[in-house]
Write a structure and sequence with these properties.
The chain has one helix at 12-15, and strands at residues 19-21, 24-26, 31-34, 37-40, 46-49, 52-55, 59-62, 65-68, 73-76, 79-82, 86-89, 92-95. The strands form 6 sheets. It has a two-stranded antiparallel sheet with strand order 1-2. A two-stranded antiparallel sheet has the order 3-4. By secondary structure, it is mainly beta. The radius of gyration is 19 Å and the shape is elongated.
Length: 105
Amino acid sequence: LRGTDTTCCGFLTCCQGRTCCGDTPYDTSSHICCEGKLSEKSSRYIRCCGNTAYNNRDHRCCNRQLNILGSSTSCCGTKAYNTFTQRCCNEHVGLKGTGCCGTAS
């Protein structure tokens, strides 16, 4: 396919049923494009975190940073934290029940 197309999806015969990732046509049922980087979609749970493909059943993307998913996980800046035992204060994780200095998020 690449040898015959000079621009992405420039030929209808090349790109029917496909989408572009940069200048490469691909099938969205089998691949995912994360900021121009093409990756295989091994399950329906594959998502993008920046240019990295990941499984959102076992990871969480927090501001373009991958974190291992735990119970009641939420994001605090680029870090994941447990909302039952921790709190987020100005993008810093602390113990729940402690105060925040400034604005809590």
